[in-house]
């Protein structure tokens, strides 16, 4: 077996408790080991991505128990791509957290950070639906600790609401898994695909209930309207480097929809016929609309970026809901772009809040305003989908993939109008924060959406060189994704083709030669 497959889970799983038990009183050593762990994870991710790029699907049997009786990890193009995205996102964020001093404002930041990476990588690699639930719970526990990092009653309240809402999703997940297991007798995703295809149509009513519940769970994770209410307050009240890491968490929901509903409940399965397009597509368009309205109406920069995350998920899920190989290839490209762009804007928002608070209103000039405003401009045009960055290419691919859809005109109208409103909202925020601030007198008026809602503690003296280098790392990722859009799209197209031919996945998991 290829032990590289389990390495993205094992490395952070070992490093996190080591940091707690051995390095808990030595912040400098925690930082060194944490950065080294993320660099190691990036090296592992590059290795497994290179292994998966040939198209072979590899299986790792934990305990040497074969599927469907044992737990398996599966490496294919999509899982490798998502692990690589996680590692690429984690590196600038951990460096920024160190440079800005965020890791020193509470306890166990680096340990929780690596537990979070373990949960995310495990969710992408697992081939078993129950273990997908397990890794979701690892995500929930670690993300709650990171959300409340630094303390504050408002942050604690937002964290409790976040946990309560996600525990509801976890309960639905268990109900869905129990229902599916009762009908099929398995939760291994490859075996589930085989069993579902064998069930007579007249006996599939309960299975459809399980499939619908499972889709609801994934939509909660992906912040799909009307299941998105947890995201704005949670992301806006979290430490913003943590919110930047959370940009990958909604993608776990999108990944799960793609994985389960192309494999176990694929387009040829009668029991779930029409489930994705008929329900998910209008919900995705409404999600995009609500996200853009939130951008336009936000009076706080952190809340505005949180609504940017919702709007980008709306665009992504529109592509997923089309449920074709071309649309899925566009969605996978857009996943990469939107994750990096959202993280970039959260880090820029943190820079703004550290210097002058987060209210979107004229204020006195801030230090390093020119450089921060340039970074905000790059993040804004990327998320809005303006040329020349990858957001324009991503949205163009989504629109092109939807040309033959029955509701193509509606999709085009929603995406284009949403992009225009996003541009207006971000331009408004940028002009008030960066441009008008130079003409503003010192403003002592209390901001009800800043100090009362988001408890930002005074920062220790930052290390601006490393902080800006970290943010420019995210910018570099967007630039490279734009420059190498051709090879990236070729990879995502082959990934989509692999997803829509699940026989190879099923054969690799269940029919391997011993």
How does this structure look, described?
The protein has 514 residues and is mostly helical. Helix content is 71%, strand content 2%. It has helices at residues 7-22, 27-52, 77-100, 109-125, 129-147, 153-184, 189-198, 205-221, 230-237, 240-245, 249-263, 275-297, 301-322, 325-356, 369-384, 390-401, 408-435, 464-483, 485-499, 503-510, and strands at 58-61, 72-75. It has a two-stranded antiparallel sheet. The radius of gyration is 22 Å and the shape is globular. The termini are close together. The model is unreliable at 439-453 and 457-462 (pLDDT under 50).
Give a quick precis of the structure.
It is built from 20 helices and two strands. It has helices spanning 7-22, 27-52, 77-100, 109-125, 129-147, 153-184, 189-198, 205-221, 230-237, 240-245, 249-263, 275-297, 301-322, 325-356, 369-384, 390-401, 408-435, 464-483, 485-499, 503-510; strands spanning 58-61, 72-75.
